[in-house]
Every structure is written in structure tokens, then in C-alpha cells.
Amino acid sequence: MSAKVVLVAACALIDADGRILIAERPAGKTMAGLWEFPGGKVETGERPEETLIRELEEELGIVVKEACLAPLTFASHTYPDFHLLMPLYVCRRWDGTVTAKEGQGLAWVRPNRLREYPMPPADVPLVSHLTTLL
């Protein structure tokens, strides 16, 4: 039996000091308390870049232009109920101030400290790519 494939787009926002934004999954959600890169599920008919523009505005109150989203790598991970395919983009420019719009915890973290934050299994392999980049 093959698992349903779920496409989720994620973004590593990188500030002027080279820190990466991660968000804590809020109570009541699956994997609550784990830290992840902001983003969300790609809706039907939507491209991953469109998903990130929508999700980053909804979750963080920032406006990102598609030209500022650079694909870096992707994660492919099988969970018990589905298979997650997650492209990771890097973004260094946005308009507005990053704000937790959905009650999630936020942290700006140096790449070499990302492993100190517990993450969902699919996010863990992405850390080494960001550490290499920065």
C-alpha cells in the first residue's frame, strides 16, 4: 500500500546577521512543541512559491516577492500516515516585521545552533544544507 504524498513548502528566512527563523508548532497541532521552518501545505493548483508567499503573510505578517525565494534543497520523509515531500527555499529579503500571527513561538537561530532545537524528522536533514550555505 503506497502512502499519500503531501507537498509542503518551507522557507529559511535569513536575517542580516545570518540567523535563521524557526517556528515552534503550537499546542493542539501534531508534533506540538517541535521547531520547524515556516511554510505550509501546497494547495491544489498552487505552486510552492505561491504557497510560501501566502503562508509567510498569514503566519508571520511579512510580504515576500517570488524573486526573493531561492530553492535550496528538499526533504523526502515517510511518516506513518503519509509521505512528505518538502522543498526548502531561502529568503533574505522581505517587507514588514516578522510577527507570530498564529501564537507560535519564534526564534532567530545561528545555523550552528539549529540542532539544539527539536525538529520534526523531515526538517532535521535540512539543517546540514543551511549550515553549509551559511
Can you describe this structure?
With 134 residues, this protein is α+β, with helices and mostly antiparallel strands. 16% of the residues lie in helices and 33% in strands. It has two helices and seven strands; from the N terminus they run ββββαβββα. The strands form two sheets. Strands 4-1-6-5 form a four-stranded mixed sheet. 29% of the residues are buried. The model has no long low-confidence stretch (mean pLDDT 93).
How do the SSEs run, as a string of H and E? EEEEHEEEH
Protein structure class: alpha+beta
The percent range for helix content is 10-25%
The strands making up the biggest β-sheet line up spatially as 4-1-6-5
Largest sheet: 4 strands, mixed
Strands, count: 7
Q: What is the rounded Rg?
A: 14 Å
The DSSP helix count reads 2
In whole angstroms, the N-to-C terminal distance is: 40 Å
Low-confidence stretches: none
Quick gist of this model?
By secondary structure, the chain is α+β, with helices and mostly antiparallel strands.
SSE blueprint:
Elements (H helix, E strand, L loop, with lengths): L3 E10 L6 E5 L10 E2 L2 E3 L6 H13 L9 E9 L3 E10 L13 E5 L16 H8 L1
Parallel strand pairs: 1-6
Antiparallel strand pairs: 1-4, 2-3, 2-7, 5-6
Keywords:
single chain, 134 residues, alpha+beta, 4-stranded mixed beta sheet, 3-stranded antiparallel beta sheet, 16% helix
